[in-house]
Amino acid sequence: MTKSSRKTTSHAIASEDVKQLTQVEWESLAEYFPMGSRSKYEKRDLVNAALYIQQTGTVWAKLPENYPPYGSVYAFYKRSLKNGSWQHVLDVL
User: Fold this and answer.
1) Model confidence over 25-44: pLDDT tens digits?
2) 15: which of 6, 54, 63, 64 fits an S-S bond (Cβ 3.0–4.6 Å)?
3) How far apart are CA 49 and CA 69, in angstroms?
4) Alpha-carbon distance 27 to 48, whole Å?
């Protein structure tokens, strides 16, 4: 098969089509992500960005611009995994 004969399919999912936390869901999760930690970004935005990655299978570096920078999201996600906070996200959802 030559390069020109290969079909490419795009399974890109728009960020607005990905599930975002509702206010009720966030209220039940917010206590696990206390304010005042290292990030300058809203915790809810970081959680939504990490959920976007999990739902779409997108690589971290391809995180859409409407989310915080991928480096910040990845660091937040790794900390959340390590301290057990991410498990609460999975339990609620």
Assistant:
1) 999 999 888 776 666 899 99
2) 64
3) 9
4) 14
